[in-house]
Amino acid sequence: MVILQNGNQTVKIDKGELVGYQVDGHEVIHQKGSPGWRSSDTEMFPIIGPTSEAHFQVQTPRDIAIMDQHGILRELEYELETSSAVSAVFKKEYKERSPVRNSKFPEKSNKQFLYYTYGFLFKKQFLLTEAGLEISFVVSGERDMPFMLGYHPAFKLHNENPTILAGARKISLKEVLAIGSRAYKVADCEKIVLKDEKEVTVETEGFQNFMLWTEVENMICLEPITFYPYDVEQKNLNDGFQFLGNDDQVFRVKISVS
Hints:
The protein has one domain (2-257): Distorted Sandwich (Beta-galactosidase, Chain A, domain 5). The strands form six sheets. A nine-stranded antiparallel beta sheet has the order 8-9-12-13-24-20-19-16-17. 3% of the residues lie in helices and 48% in strands. It contains one helix and 24 strands. The mean pLDDT is 97. By secondary structure, it is mainly beta. Monomer. Keywords: Calcium.
């Protein structure tokens, strides 16, 4: 467990997963073991969305990749690269076409192993400042590597009727619950405010969209995404790809509590 501390803020990170963020003792992250989801955060990469109806196949310029829901990154383990009192850097590295065991097999998938047709290096960087928690994602690989990226943090709810603000839009928990597993789409948005017992603000750089998901009333996932997967059929998920340039691509999420 890596613990970051800055003033009245404490962050807990377990093998790269954000399992706690407290401000003045107030916990804003969904706790494992509570109803709703078995994790507290994860990343969706190099694809976002379900693949079952496409027989777990995603077309890339280099051939078919075998992907389960939300990609392959979540099946890899983070390695701690560096840490300090207020920062930590984790990384995952993948070699092109290397088979990775699928944790959903055999209960939820008939694919025992997954693979991607490109290799990559993925870094997750935490920085706890006086203003809040900044999480950066650095994608490295060969030029023109196709990918999508989504960050999937779950926030603990303390009140019965929290409200989500996205610009001029006001979204209720009931509206998100009504959408179900597809997740509520918030397009062209770089900032979400969760008004609960405290106000949690999530600001992003590079993602440009959000989707909101929960199936319970004690947590909600506010997920920055580069592409909303339900805009296309599963067999056309590759329509959501963007392509890596000559340099590493950096995406940022800033979480603050007031």
